[in-house]
Amino acid sequence: MTAIRKQHPALSRGARTTLSVTDETYAYEKTDDGSGDRVLVVINRSDEPQTVEGVPAGSYTDLLSGDAVEGGAIEVPARTSLVLSQ
Questions:
Q1: Tens digits of per-residue pLDDT, 42-56?
Q2: pTM score
Q3: Residue 7, helix vs strand vs coil
Q4: Taking the CB of residue 48, how many other CB atoms lie within 10 A of it?
């Protein structure tokens, strides 16, 4: 995570905007206006997979796993977080 934070200033000093929140999930965007960096964080704290709405449409890379993710409604495995960048 330290390497990801160094590469993405929005994670350290960006403004946070909530995209979606439920009892089990939270999705937010961090944006750093100075660098133009933008990162989306999607969290599932449930013991079951959850579909998280509210992520802007588009193609992303999960910076934690390297997996490709399509925006919109995202299926997030149980007890998992995604850190998404375009």
A1: 999 999 999 999 999
A2: 0.93
A3: helix
A4: 9
